[in-house]
Amino acid sequence: MMVCDADISQNTRGKRTALQAQARETLQIRCYAEDLLPRWHFLRAMQAKPLVRQSSPNRLAEVLERLDNSCWYWGPMDSMEAMRKLKYQPNGTYLLRDSTDSRHLFTLSVRTDKAGMTNVRILYKRGRFTLDSIEPADRNMPNFDCVLKLIYYYKRVSNNLDGRKVFAMESKEKESDATSTPQEIPFVLKKPLFHKPATLKHLCRTAINRTLSLEQVLELNLPLTVENYMLKYPYPI
Prior knowledge:
The protein contains 8 helices and 7 strands. The radius of gyration is 23 Å and the shape is globular. The chain starts with a helix and ends in a 6-residue tail after the last helix. A 5-stranded mixed beta sheet has the order 4-3-2-1-7, sandwiched between helices. It has a two-stranded antiparallel sheet with strand order 5-6. By secondary structure, the chain is an alpha+beta fold. 44% of the residues lie in helices and 15% in strands.
């Protein structure tokens, strides 16, 4: 039986196409797994904290997704590493990281004028986020259902007080430091320190959010995919 060159070429192309399709599928699975890996590590680490065991894992997964989109959430990091990252940055530069205190979720590290760097602990109580403060002032502190809303609020407030200052209690990195005298430190939030480059479409999203409110965006009758993308990160920072 004779097999012509055309048949061999066609079979070769067919095998090559099948291998390419298999390679693309493998790459997609790998990328999907790599995308899920930080979320899995985050939830695994957070579930070890007593505070989180009383909260909804789905809620924390939603918070993590929005933090991932921000590009300036650094995940696990201690105060010394945060200090190295912020050391040569302008005053008002900040980053969000996991708290090393097992009782809390996040810490906001800020480059300040006098203190050099300030760590502000973010409290999570009954599904709401608030900055740490000295009692009884903590009962009057603004609270938010998303940590990004909290940071955006203080970014606006600290830059629009006509010379007045926003104060927050400097956090202690370890539970053993909790007995030391707390200090209230003035701070201003100007710009975040990114740990990875933001995509062009994310930069477009934040630019739109700086111009339009979420309600105005929803009134534009955008395609559903675009609308869902905007809803995943409705913040201008």
